[in-house]
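To whoever is on call:

I kicked off a structure prediction for a single chain this morning and the downstream step that reads the tokens threw a length-mismatch warning. I double-checked the sequence; it's 163 residues and nothing unusual in it as far as I can see. Pasting both halves so you can look.
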Amino acid sequence: MTERKPAGMSFETWVESQIAQGMARGDFEGLAGSGKPLPRRSDADSMVDWVVAKARQENLDLFGMLPPGLALRKEREDLPRRAAELMSETAVRALAEDYNARVEAFWRRPQESRWSPVPGLADVEALVAEWHRNRPPRPALAPEPAAPERRRWLDRWRVRRRG
């Protein structure tokens, strides 16, 4: 379809002639889904459902498609799961403080709409407390090996040797 529509020809006629030429060349032979009806969408399906299905089909990140405020809210809901994977309390605190810093930066930016969702801050202490509650108990430390008992005969030998 590199040629331009000739002047004086209607757009519909030009498109129909392009399709006829493509069929004559065999451009439409062996296409995936050829001869199958298009999937029917019910009235209950919305455009959002179609976008989500298409994004999953193409392995796209759904969070990247959300407005920033809603994405931050979803991230706050996901914080306990992400914190459970961390190994130290300082890492959990850093995770929550990083989230809070991004929320505060979001608050400072002008929003595109008055009705944009406004995310709240994460409660750092509650997240750390939940992390402690859900941690498996630490294994007990192995007791230090006791000092070997002195043998009495060794003491007697030293006394005899001195005397």
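Update from on-call: the warning came from a stale cache, not from the record. Cleared it. Sanity check on the structure: The radius of gyration is 36 Å.
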